[in-house]
Amino acid sequence: MEAVRRLNNMRLTRAAFVLYDFKKESSPTLVGMLCLHVDDILAAGDPNSKIYVDAEIALKKAFDFRTFETDEKTLEYCGGHDHCWKVNQHDYIQKVKPVTIHKGRTAENEMNDHDRSQLRALLGSLQWPAVQTAPHL
Questions:
Q1: What is the domain range of residue 81?
Q2: Mean pLDDT over residues 76-81, rounded?
């Protein structure tokens, strides 16, 4: 748990943390970084650093991650996929559910609470990629 306590909040953003190796004979060396957004976490670090490896082990013990993937080629964070700095959200968009219109509904019918809820969910789902990678949305 000591390694996790060494994660320092960055002053410019409360969602980013850095992990340093403080050697007595030299200046601090950055060995890891962690970014948070709502329910997504992105961590990177030096796998040869005992401090980073210990911090990763401590995080895995402290939190119940649905998945914890290590992949040097494809990065997924906040629904986006990063391939050599090209970001796409194809998989995310494929999971967005359409609004269901009930049989017998006409254009003259007022929107009910169910319709309003579905529309808000759809707009919320589309807002994320619009801000991140698809301004045309």
A1: 77-132
A2: 56
